[in-house]
Input
Amino acid sequence: MKRAHIKGVGHYLPENVVPNAHFEKTLETSNDWIISRSGIERRHFAAEDETTSHLASHAARAALKDAGLEANDLDALIVATSTPDLTFPSAATMVQHQIGMTGGFAFDIQAVCAGFVFALANANALIVSGTAKRVMVIGAETFSRIMDWTDRGTCVLFGDGAGALILEAADGDGTAQDRGVLATDLNSDGTYRDILYVDGGVSTKTTGYLRMEGKEVFRHAIEKLAATAHTAMDSAGVTSEDVDWVVPHQANIRIIKGTAKKMNMPMENVIVTVQDHGNTSAASIPLALSVGKAEGKLKQGDLVVTEAIGGGLAWGAVVLRW
Ligand SMILES: CC(C)(COP(=O)(O)OP(=O)(O)OC[C@H]1O[C@@H](n2cnc3c(N)ncnc32)[C@H](O)[C@@H]1OP(=O)(O)O)[C@@H](O)C(=O)NCCC(=O)NCCS
Output
């Protein structure tokens, strides 16, 4: 049976690192409050002239280098983002051009913070169906462009960045010992539209700002993340004991810890980057995968579970063997 193996990974973070203290100057907040409620210590913000496609292209080049491939070795390129440079064309076609990929196809996926998991599941489907042999999946965001800097309940939580993963078709024997993507689980429920959304877009002729009922999102997050992780693990035929690493969406350390507990996973087996990146939405999982590999944690053969939830609500999980 065909499997989508991991060929390479890379990431990019804008140069500008913003510590929590930055917000103490303009808002009634504190470094202590932000750390205790979210685990975030700093985040990166893109420069004025840096767009989502620029961040994504940097990450794409890093992943190509890691895989020992050229842009034209790719058949397809997917960018998961809710903050594309323009309404259209897609950020993915912009990245395709910027990295010098002259064939194949490129498109965006928009599932907010769950975007990377949705894109990974779709890339896997393209490979398993024989539509593409090599697919780059990028999560890239410039959430700093949709922050209301007067809203202390949101603006301290998000950051900018990009991560990229390259998948390649390979043969497997259909067991949980195979390398590559083993199982995916995707979900959404539009009845929760109003607890996490942007109050602008094409219909308002504005870009808008992120609005969130933090407590409500928090309430859904742990329950839905643990459930989707369990569904994906069941479908892969593995249990928590088999899992080497959980690589969760990096929104909040309290959500990460609560979900790990419900999954019976000790925190030593969870890759955490939220303290350094904040919530980078669709970029957070590929950023954590890339950092995890660079730190020597993720090794070939390791069993990995990724899980994410975001606006929609949309949520899902992917089980893969590195
Ligand atoms: C946003 C979040 C950190 C707030 O933490 P919380 O413990 O739920 O805090 P509450 O919302 O109950 O707010 C408690 C108080 O802190 C205040 N507060 C909010 N942001 C603050 C800040 N940056 N600094 C200081 N106080 C703040 C609130 O105004 C509230 O004050 P009040 O009681 O006087 O009204 C938390 O709800 C959360 O992480 N939610 C999930 C968010 C998330 O991860 N979203 C993305 C998912 S993809």
Q: What stands out?
A: Residues 214-236 form the longest helix (23 residues).
